[in-house]
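Sharing in case it's useful to others searching the archive later.

Someone asked me privately for the predicted structure of Serine/threonine-protein kinase RIO3, so I'm posting the question and my answer publicly. Question first, with the sequence:
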Amino acid sequence: MDSVGVAAAAPDAGPGPAWQSKCPWGTPSTTSISCSLADVMSEQLAKELQLEEENAAFPEVVAAAEGPFITGENIDTSSDLMLAQMLQMEFDREYDAQLRREEKKINGDSKVSISFENYRKVHPYDSDSSEDEVDWQDTRHDPYRADKPTTTPKRGFIGKGKDITTKHDEVVCGRKNTARMENFAPEFQVGDGIGMDLKLSNQVFNALKQHAYSEERRSARLHEKKEHSTAEKAVDPKTRLLLYKMVNSGMLETITGCISTGKESVVFHAYGGKSATEDKVIPPECAIKVFKTTLNEFKNRDKYIKDDYRFKDRFSKLNPRKIIRMWAEKEMHNLTRMQNAGIPCPQVVILKKHVLVMSFIGQDQVPAPKLKDVTLSSEDMKKAYYQILNMMQQLYRECNLVHADLSEYNMLWHDGKVWLIDVSQSVEPTHPHGLEFLFRDCRNVSQFFQKGGVAEALNERELFNAVSGLNITADNEVDFQAEIEALEKMNEDHVQNHGKKLSTFSSDGDPPIYDE
Ligand code: ADP
Ligand code: MN
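And my answer, the predicted structure tokens:
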């Protein structure tokens, strides 16, 4: 019987209960070594034991980290308070996990169950139990590619003749209400209503819904308070713990400091360390993009993700923290697609929750300059232009992506070529606003190079057609934009009617290749 769930996976958990191996303090002496008093007092031995325990606590860890814990001016690691908070948080989570297991043990298969909910230390919204941890480290599989939207029949009934059942049928309706509870925030425990064929009346369902929402708001408020109480500009304790683990595992050597603080993310520089697995090489220098868990900034980006069918099903069911993880996930998958197409961009090293580690574009801690900050010779400028034109076409055709924030701010000049970064908001061309995003990208690129004196630079409309392979003939911006929106609408109608998207927009054959 496996009553301990995931923790049982820890390989050298020893004879103690397996959950202890997840505890930051590890398993109390699993092997009985007899030793002298000198040994007991030895600091060296204590350190070794500590390392051993940490390795057991985080099984992915292989190499022991001798190097400094996160160093650099921007990260204050000397704060005992911070360390204490991190440890306390781990402890609380451990405590809660234990409670959950007790609960499960006592309840067993019984129809009547008890709950220890009120004894929990971490509010459901703050609990990040590793059970639901998804890292998507396996970048070969892009979980969003296969998902196609499904349509529900517009008519409000199923069946024929006598057997017709309308959506007002009490039993059907009751079952539907039960199923709809799954849409409540994931932390809201709804039990197995479907399993026991529970039929909820509308009245009961609505009361429950109301309760779920107010509970969600309450925890969001609590959460917000906590976020704001920690240094807003730096990283919160959870992120710190994640970074700590990366350094501690030896995967990163040192985190040297902050490269950029944006509205939605903070980017750090780090020296790469040793990989836990042979086949993976950690780049000598890494960039760590931390997606901010302060939620406000992400609100205005909803449109990029909400309408993206790859995420549609998941979006409505997720709490804000998970949505932020999705941004990080999205950036990872988009970077991987680009990498596969040979587009110069950072290489993904690892994704942990909302923290994405990738290769660093630049050298000796100095990030490559953005295109807007670098002065190029006219020859390089022309070279950069054609390279970008190519990359935009590759992105569209091979990666099936539109960057959606392409400008001289998100292109770096390094090693005599342009590198694309910042692709968390990139979408597929058939996204309801995908073509509008592409047009905006084209406008940015076109204007930048025309101002930069590249005589060959296409105007935004020509560029749009060249990238998309569409043949929009309007000769002014307003009409052009109207045609774009009409195409998007056509695609949406197609989705409504056929339950799936057009694989691509119809085009007059392959787009022309523009080259030097
Ligand atoms: P934001 O959403 O904050 O704009 P970006 O991904 O554009 O996030 O990163 C912000 C800045 O951090 C970039 O403009 C760039 O200067 C730097 N940066 C990001 N990723 C890397 C990287 N892989 N290598 C070097 N610098 C990077
Ligand atoms: Mn950016």
